[in-house]
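Quick one - inputs below.
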Amino acid sequence: MRPFRMKLISAAFTGLLAIATLPGCAKQLATADRSGNRSTDRRPRQLEKIPPRGLDFVIRDRRSVGEVSVQLAVSPEVSKAWPDGFFAGLAEGGAAGAVGVGTALLFPMYQGAALGVLLVPPLAVWGYANSRQNATVTKALQDIDFPNRLQASLDSRFFKNSRPAPAGDLRLEVGIIRYGLLNNVPGGEILCLKVDATIVLTASDGVIFEDDVFWSHLTRSEDLPPARCASLGKFAAKDGALVQQVFDEASEIVSAAIFRRLGGKP
Amino acid sequence: MSKMAQCLGAMVLVLCSACSSRVWQYRGDITPTSYQRIDGRIERSVGKLRRLAVAPIRFQNVLDIWEGWPTEPRKVEQQAEVTGRVMSATLSWLSARGYEAAPLDLHEVLYLEKLGLTPERVTEQLDTLVAWMRSSDDGAQPPESTAEIVRRLGRPLNVDGIVVVEGIRRPPNITATLAVLTASLSWPLVFFEGKVEMRADIYEVATGKVVWRGKAREFYGASVFKSQGLVGSVPARLFGELEHAVPRVLVEE
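Output:
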């Protein structure tokens, strides 16, 4: 009886190991279209005509204090205390070890316990690496200064880098409600761009145009492309180079969308 | 090493070698045809080909002993089912990357009138393209006659590129497999010996050059081919690292 039970448990552990060693295939099959943007498009409004001169910009950062940390998929608290990731990993490794030890107690088989204990170091390392990636992405996001980038891009688009003195009769206010990277599914490994903003154009006699910019992997304005998505590892690589690139492009795309909605021609 | 460890090791090796993909990308200049210029600071290469026509999927389904010997109508039905699912998955995947992708419809009257060709003649030209695709190495460029086919098929559609996807399903070599597996007592491996091999090329309509090539190989078991997962994962394997298309809002047509 005992050899049979040992074989059964060995088979279970080796099966789990086999699954763990085939992440490429398994992930490919399970997440084949996870970054697919199942978006609900929102049709933007279009202003018939606007004189491009005499326009003043106001880029308002309408995020409330602390909202950045809510919008970032990785919370700054985790990134500051990097050893937490290590200890979290250690805890997961410990849990795996406990399972092994527990199994060994139920069934007198020392291989199970040994295997469980062996899982502790790799899981701890994984937890540490994950927390480092979170920290890199969080820092890159905090360094972006998206409102300023958007301002520069709008300036260049509307005034071709030679901004005239505002006439004061028209005022474009772009309110950035939120921007950041969000998990495509709760707890998922894939992060996707998110930008929400409002556009308000006012003249001396009141608001003449008002619209929204929605951009995420779930909902987006119809004139925006699918939101960029990538894994945490890819966003974290090269000190968050991809984060910079994605938000550089996002500022160009959002400014072009605003420009066209206000009747601008390329 | 115990027999069990040997068996496990062999299984992992077979699975890893069977589930692979490889891509090649052209590094030179890419020329779009559906728009004049990009209005904004954005770096793209293949992503410049934002409007794509996807040629009818070619798929060769070699008979499989595990499904018995299907009748001719059943074979045709299976073929249509597979190509339909691959086409749908490909369009959906490209669309999620911002490409405006549409199937190249061989029965669209207006298109055929512009081309001045019958559907049969267009099919023949696509056959030529697929034959070159199968025989060429990664990095090779098509000869002038094949490049001319790309230009000719793509221009009336006002697309920047043509996507060609083809594949073959190879069942296990049953005699050799049975002999080896019986000798080694590792019968379950038979399910991983059969393969689905797919490849995809993206051609630039302006020049007829191939700018992207993806190859993928998947194992399959007795019934896994019928599942949505395998076919659905094909585009991700063929176009995995393909960059996002230039957004419409940044192009001047």
